[in-house]
Amino acid sequence: MSNLFLRNRLARTSAACLFAACVAMLVPAMAIAADPVAVSISKFAFTPAEISIAAGTRVVWKNADETPHTLASRDKTFASKALDTDDTFEHTFTDAGDFSYFCTLHPFMTGVVHVHKQ
Amino acid sequence: MTMSDSNRNDAAPDLARRKALGCLAAWTGAAVVWSVAGGVPRALGATNSGGMPAVSKNALTFVQISDTHIGFHKEANPDVAGSFRRAIADINGLPHAPAFVVHTGDVSHLSKAEEFGQARELMQELHVDRVHTVPGEHDALDDGLDGYLKFFDHDGKGRTWYSFDQGGVHFIGLSNVLNFKMGTMTSLGDEQIAWLKRDLARLPHSTPIVVLAHIPMWTVWEPWGWGTADSAAALALLRPFGSVTVLNGHIHQALQKIEGHIALHTGMSLAYPLPTPGQAGIGEPGPVKVPAGELGKLLGTRQLSLVRGQRELALIDTPLDH
Description:
The complex is a heterodimer. By secondary structure, chain A is an alpha/beta fold. Chain A folds into two domains: about 1-30, no CATH class; about 35-115, Cupredoxins -  blue copper proteins (Immunoglobulin-like), CATH 2.60.40. Chain A has two helices and eight strands, in the order ααββββββββ. The relative contact order of chain A is 0.19. In chain B, helix 4 (about 115-125) runs parallel beside helix 5 (about 145-150) and helix 6 runs parallel beside helix 7. The longest helix of chain B has 13 residues, at about 80-90.
């Protein structure tokens, strides 16, 4: 969205300025904001249950079940509220490490996020 | 015709055990006769008489309902309030009015104040003096049990476990829906087990005991968390008593298990059915969708009666469609 806004605003300026702005601003922005990674909560399981991501990546969980689920990391760095059907929870992992998590209502549902340095 | 009748005059050496097994004598509204094999009863099949067994006038009678999930509105049951109302009509129409009703948890679906409020309003339509509730894990979302306690604080102490005495029976309500730990089943927790020990210490062992708790107090199916990790510690405290009946919900179906003098029963839901434990081809304990005409056969209530001086406790499971 911010890129789109930027582009609309910059369209009113000269082509040379636009080129300079793209180089100066858009390239660093793209390096920081990697695409979010999706994890589905379906049939009482996290899918994929194990993911590996670079630090700074956002992970989005979405509940596809008719039963509410939660997720909470074992080390308590993140925890969602109860997610009803189609509700989502997201968390951006800034530090490297292995983060195991589970559904606090159905603790047999477990997953792990491996975060490596960029 | 019942196990309790056939066992009562039996002079076999293991009389006590067989008498305890007699507690299992249970009927459904469709008059299914239960038999006992290896400590676990199995339904033999429906009898021809569809009538409900008469209840002794001297008995303390109460009704168990469970898992109303007020707020659920998905395909498995778009009208859970309507199902609850049908159960209320059944209970209000019983020829022998029950002393009270117990609700073994998952009153609400998402712990919302409006769900608790609607459930409490529905309960007020019951023609009984009191509804005793214990919480389910669906009543403990986000704020723990604070939201539940605003509507269902049993004795004003801000606790979800309690006990009371009625008709010579000691009733205990427990909460096993807060202590979920990664990769394990739920638990009661040390504080509650210590309280249970103190609560039982003052009772003679001849006192009949009825325990209410949401999640089964025995391991029904561990891969789905259908059990309580520290239930053995609680059952050990109950074991010296001559007649112990544990009533659970959570798994949305009627199952029984006997351990010595302890009979453990799960009850039907009033919202939607769940698979049988580990049911092949399903894989997870989510709501089971059945044709509209089938749902009322899988939801229902349970009437229980205890006669002073008798160890046997009669259970009648009645589906909404009967």
